[in-house]
Write a structure and sequence with these properties.
- The chain has 302 residues and is mainly alpha-helical.
- It has 14 helices and no strands.
- Helix content is 76%, strand content 0%.
- α1 packs antiparallel against α14 and α3 crosses α14.
- The protein is flat.
Length: 302
């Protein structure tokens, strides 16, 4: 009898525990679901705020100008003109200006990548007098807006006879402090044991840089390359000051006269802006993983 009573008590306790487990877990599960729904709702609102101007640009580009204005500029296309992109391409001679922008951007991005990697390696691993002072002075240049150096740089470029030239558009931007700072922080995250092992293997500075430091910090370097490309592609003030000939204008400069077209063709400007943004969109789609990994590098420790 005692054994039967004990078995009965165990079965009863097991049933109680099994029956109470879902009840205890429901509040926690409900909170997780509510949190997830809240985050998705917040991200949806933010995505709408970011994408709505893009949508309106597409709507303005596709819509016939006067009917769209007469309709009160709604959020949907009015009498779409599907040939507007080919018209904007030919009207603005977009092919030539896209090539100039691509050449300028590639030169700046590659030069900034090379100079930033070399300078970052020097500041991270080499020993030389006044290292900290020089690094602080180097980073302090980030606080100088382009307007401060604009006039002196224009005078230098004019003296060299580089106005309306590729070198005039690129030389002042071949190095940047932000790239040196970001890549240096990535280099400082390399374990000391790895550096000691490389020295024991007889690696010199260039070997260690090429075979160890760059592969380890590849996400940071890739993210800076994307940032450098975006900044160079979207430049407006400097190309505007350096180029007076339309033949040497970048695509960002040519958008202004297209945007000032007659009222009957006011959709030419938005169409040209979409064409100019396509290379950036493709770049972000292709390298979005590297960009996110680089920007979050070091945020989570294993």
């Amino acid at each position: 009898m005692a054994t039967a009573d004990t078995i009965t008590e165990v079965e009863t306790a097991s049933k109680v525990e099994l029956g109470s487990t879902p009840t205890n877990e429901r509040p926690g599960r409900r909170n997780r679901v509510l949190r997830t729904v809240g985050w998705y709702a917040l991200l949806s609102v933010l995505a709408f705020l970011v994408l709505f101007p893009v949508w309106m640009t597409i709507v303005r580009a596709l819509s016939a100008s006067l009917p769209y204005l007469s309709a009160g500029q709604p959020v949907y296309p009015v009498e779409p003109e599907w040939d507007i992109f080919s018209r904007a391409w030919s009207r603005g001679n977009m092919g030539r200006h896209l090539l100039i922008s691509a050449a300028v951007t590639l030169i700046i991005a590659i030069a900034q990548l090379v100079t930033s990697v070399l300078a970052a390696y020097a500041f991270a691993f080499l020993r030389f007098p006044f290292k900290r002072v020089l690094f602080a002075a180097f980073i302090a240049t980030l606080m100088l807006p382009i307007e401060v150096t604009l006039v002196p740089n224009i005078e230098i470029i004019d003296t060299l006879g580089w106005k309306n030239t590729i070198q005039g558009l690129t030389v002042p931007f071949l190095a940047t402090a932000i790239g040196t700072f970001l890549i240096r922080q990535g280099f400082l995250g390399i374990p000391k044991d790895l550096r000691d092992a490389a020295r024991l293997d007889g690696f010199g500075n260039l070997q260690f840089l090429w075979r160890v430091a760059i592969p380890v910090t590849r996400p940071v370097i890739a993210s800076f390359a994307v940032i450098s490309f975006l900044a160079a592609w979207n430049q407006y003030l400097w190309p505007r000051a350096i180029t007076q000939e339309e033949a040497m204008s970048t695509v960002q400069i040519i958008l202004r006269p297209l945007a000032a077209a007659a009222v009957g063709e006011f959709n030419i400007g938005p169409a040209a802006a979409i064409i100019a943004a396509l290379p950036i969109l493709i770049l972000l789609i292709v390298f979005q993983r590297q960009l996110v990994r680089g920007l979050t590098a070091g945020a989570v420790k294993g």
